[in-house]
Amino acid sequence: GGSRPLPGQEVSVKVLGALEDGGLVERDPRLIFVPGHGDVVQALELGVPTMQPGEVSFFLAAFPYAYGRPGSREPDVPPEAPLLFEVTLLEVRDGPDPQPLPPAVRLRLGSQRRERGNFHFARADFAAALRSYRLSLRALDGPTTAPPGPEEEEELREQRVKCLNNCAAAELKLGRAEEALAACEAALRISPDNGRALLRRGQLLAEQGRDAEAAVVLRRALELDPASKVIHTELSRLAKRQSPPSST
Questions:
Q1: Domains (range + CATH), the chain
Q2: Residue 196: per-residue pLDDT
């Protein structure tokens, strides 16, 4: 009984996932997600919104709607494996993002969505990965019921930087260099000495022909990581471009 989940609402489900031979690969007594946010496999994204609270459903998912062609290490799912899901819809409620939440819950939501983005990225679904990374940032930036403590504040900051770096990588895969550069710069506003963001920003500036700016950024990256062969290579390439041709 009760209404089916509406767009933007959060659901709690009990999930069991099994292979064709009956081997149990997934068990979660209370999985929480928002359908449409890309946090779970497609079988659950598409199936759960058809359910009512208290209902138990079985979904037989072909591999594109489960863990894809490569399968998964965690949970342990073989390549191209169909899965049978037993799903119980426990609860439907309004989505958590606009509401103040404890810092620990914000961190959990942010981590869950970033990991889902990594799942999509590994499968070359870069648009879905970017969507998950943006949802992670929204969770991390949302209001909290109490000010985070020093350790929570540091973890929130680190997770934001990771997400922004991941956004930049996804934007590059989608051919959007300007958006990738903006994500790098946002990461550096939070953590000015983040080596990953410095390197990628330097590379993007060099691609735009902004060699002087790129050299400053890459030299700073080299100070932080003097052994990096990638940074040495980028600086050498810039030096060759800036050197005048030798006269005979």
A1: 10-93 (3.10.50.40), 98-175+182-190 (1.25.40.10), 192-239 (no CATH)
A2: 94
